[in-house]
Design goal:
Keywords: G-protein coupled receptor, Membrane, Receptor, Transducer, Transmembrane, Transmembrane helix. By secondary structure, this protein is mostly helical. It has six helices and no strands. Among the domains are: 68 residues; 37 residues.
Amino acid sequence: MPNASSWSASSPLLLLWEDSSGTRIFLSLLYAVLAISGTLSNVMVIYLVFSFKKLQTTSNAFIVNGCAADLSVCALWMPQEAAVLGLLPPNSSSLRSAEYRLLRGGLLGLGLTVSLASHLLVAFNRYVLITKLPSVYQALYQRRHTGCMIGLSWALALLLVPLLPGLWTPGSA
């Protein structure tokens, strides 16, 4: 087991990883596999919901929203993270640039925030369906209201991403 002095603090998104080329290659491959499998899985869910009329429900609209958020992480963030880990040296100036940190933190923050909001919307949808009268459920979850809820989840995420700690400070990793 490596000692505390061999751990790198250059990436807050990876927990306690060694800065050796073997570990970097392993993590790069892991990110690549997760990116491919996550992208394919989320695209498949979206395709199935849009392909079958029976699956086009309010709950599934929130699930598709979560899949879209996951795609921002799996299809956009993970591949560039895998490429950076596998190709760039650990002390590269590109890794430390403010633009790269902003892109990296913004993509991940946006995807995770919308994904969490989608889970919250699914849970609230199930709560209303179980505890309220069907007329209340149908009035609350009309197509227009559902679209507004999904739009608000993205708007909320876009407003919260700039507040992520360490995203704007020059010295933070």
